[in-house]
Amino acid sequence: MTDSLHRDLLALAREAAHRAGELLRDGRPSDLAVARTKSSNVDVVTEMDIAAEKLITDLISGRRPDDGFLGEEGASAEGTSGVRWVIDPLDGTVNYLYGLPTWAVSIAAEQGGETVVGVVAAPMRGETYHAVRGGGAWATGAWEGERALACRPAPPLDQALVSTGFNYVAEVRAHQAALAARLIPLVRDIRRGGSAAVDLCDVACGRLDGYYERGLHPWDFAAGDLIAREAGALTGGRPGEPLSRELTVAAAPGVFEPLQRLLEDFGAWHD
Ligand code: IPD
Ligand code: CA
Ligand code: CA
Ligand code: CA
Question: Would you identify the family this protein belongs to, as annotated (predicted)?
């Protein structure tokens, strides 16, 4: 029963992510502008973020009217079925605004408060990543069938390629930049891709050894966290704590603990 529910939720999440991805890829206006700002003047929303969220919530609530929702652009409903959808309709809005290819649609389904399905569609890569709890993590691409994801065999931390992101609020960014400056001599290099969901999937694919960020919301990490864990990565927050807004760390086993310890020593969790 649970397995067939999870399969149904996965199929619906994939359909919604693909449709929203097509809308974003094919419907991007050439004169795309900022519709409004949120926490700061660089925290932008476009009409396409809003249109993609509407497409996803209309599709899912049409099929499953009793489910709850949490979406970045305002989707919020309690629901009565025990299933809640956690949606980032466009993760990487700033990249999308500038025409850079790293952005994604991220959709997770929770049951009883636990993530059971995660889908991240990255249309400009032609790749979609998905996972069902306990069922491994998978990628599908336009050019090949499904392939199982496995994070990279861990190198020592000083040879690890680590990605991060910066919050939209100036004081938080300043602290994050200072932290990155301390970290960079201790690792192979640092990347800033611009989509937390893609960063987490890149850990799952073995394209990154690790990723960390402070200030994420559940819609940024819900799907990618499950995909990374199902690919064998470890995820968490501060040592001994689950990943959260305070701190999100995901890395191949072997890189995870030294990276998490270093971030703790550097005070990565506070502004
Ligand atoms: C942002 C991206 C970015 C991360 C920010 C997020 P958005 O999400 O994931 O990589 O650094 O913290 O807010 O606003 O593009 O959906
Ligand atoms: Ca946003
Ligand atoms: Ca996001
Ligand atoms: Ca977003």
Answer: Belongs to the inositol monophosphatase superfamily.
